[in-house]
Design brief:
36% helix, Cytidine Deaminase, domain 2, alpha/beta, 14 helices
Length: 390
């Protein structure tokens, strides 16, 4: 099949719409559903991301994509009991691939709502069971076991988008796109992200463990497929905060840092002890937790809305208590798709537990950024490579 007709483009008024390939056949087979234009943008970007994560780490990988940027990305490391609880998978039988998806979906559950999933490996039953219960638009993978496929086909009354991609497909080295009737052309970004990119450590602290290097590679590969400007915080094999599409780098760092902080606060004893009413949906729990750790919670207490969510009124999680808990988050890796122009990015990153950084370098204020890292004992590598994605 050389082309696929779509219902419409980015919006319903943008017709006609299709995807096609100049030479050969499309490298995908739609096993179920009718994927749309944005679904396929997410699918193809997500597939590239997990394919590279698998290559770089040797571990199964998954990503949760929304609007052409990842909401989460992770490799298949085992989950702690706390992560199982906050990802709502305590009772699940988790394969390595299922662990990867639980991590990718769970890091920023609000952003992942209605995601498009990409899996590096053949989808197995444990992973299909996780996907089946979440609100999602579709999944792309190199294959599906027979039982996993049947599970997924039962989702959304049989209309769930299930795509099989040829894992051996190699795209043309030159890519094009049109804007305002004008064709843009460039060589594909075939940069191989590996540990060699982390060899130029420019700070006084030059110590980077194998796990830290793995997490930095996860950050950089995630950024390679995130709308720029972007930064990515990673801990224990998963992205915990992604800041995408901001015009200012400090706003990227703050946005992603705030997401990383929320991820960590969800593991605080005060949050784990929340007693929800029976039958509450997962999305409502996610929203309630987000409100509970925000300034809005006082308003919820005042108008009595808590009674619809919690069995008993939770105590206020004070700013002092939150600050004390956040100080316990350490050993976080941070990647940036372009250089940090000011040390304020490092100051903000430190507040979210960052201890190692990878960024291209090349700013006229590199010395200021290095000095700020030295002030906090942070190890920073200059990769020399920018990772803009548009």
């Amino acid at each position: 099949m050389k082309e696929m007709q779509l219902k419409y483009g980015c919006n319903p008024n943008q017709k006609p719409s299709r995807i096609y390939i100049e030479n050969g056949d499309l490298p995908i087979e739609v096993l179920c559903g009718n994927p749309g234009y944005i679904n396929l943008l997410d699918a193809f970007n997500g597939w590239q991301l997990v394919k590279e994560l698998k290559k770089a780490t040797g571990l199964p990988a998954a990503t949760s994509f929304k609007h052409v940027s990842p909401a989460g990305a992770a490799v298949g490391l085992p989950l702690s009991d706390t992560l199982k609880q906050i990802y709502f998978v305590e009772e699940e039988n988790l394969s390595p691939l299922a662990c990867a998806y639980a991590r990718a979906r769970g890091a920023d559950r609000m952003s992942s709502f209605g995601d498009f999933i990409a899996l590096s490996d053949v989808c197995d039953v444990p992973t299909a069971n996780l996907i089946a219960r979440e609100v999602s638009d579709g999944v792309i993978a190199p294959g599906y076991t027979d039982e996993a496929l049947e599970i997924l086909k039962g989702k959304r009354k049989g209309s769930y988008n299930i795509i099989k991609i040829d894992e051996n497909y190699t795209p043309a080295p030159i890519e094009t796109k049109q804007v305002y009737g004008i064709t843009f052309e460039q060589g594909r970004n075939e940069l191989d992200i590996n540990e060699e990119l982390l060899s130029n450590v420019v700070t006084e602290n030059k110590n980077m463990s194998a796990d830290q290097k793995r997490d930095l590679m996860i950050a950089l590969i995630t950024l390679k497929y995130t709308q720029s400007n972007s930064v990515c915080y990673v801990k224990d094999g998963q992205a915990i905060g992604i800041g995408a599409g901001q015009q200012s780098r400090i706003h990227c760092t703050r946005l992603a840092g705030n997401k990383a902080d929320i991820w960590w606060l969800r593991q605080a004893p005060q949050v784990l002890a929340l007693d929800f009413v029976d039958g509450i949906k997962r999305a409502d729990r996610d929203n309630a937790i987000d409100v509970y750790i925000s300034d809005e919670y006082m308003d919820v207490l005042a108008d009595g809305a808590w009674e619809k969510i919690f069995k008993t009124k939770p105590p206020v999680f004070t700013k002092e208590e939150q600050k004390a808990w956040l100080s316990k988050n350490t050993d976080v890796a941070l990647g940036s798709d372009a250089f940090f122009p000011f040390g304020d990015n490092i100051e903000r990153a430190r507040k979210s537990g960052v201890t190692v950084i990878a960024q291209p370098g090349g700013s006229i204020r590199d010395e200021n950024v290095i000095e700020t890292c030295n002030k906090f004992g942070i190890a920073m590598a200059f990769t020399g490579i920018r990772l803009f994605h548009h």
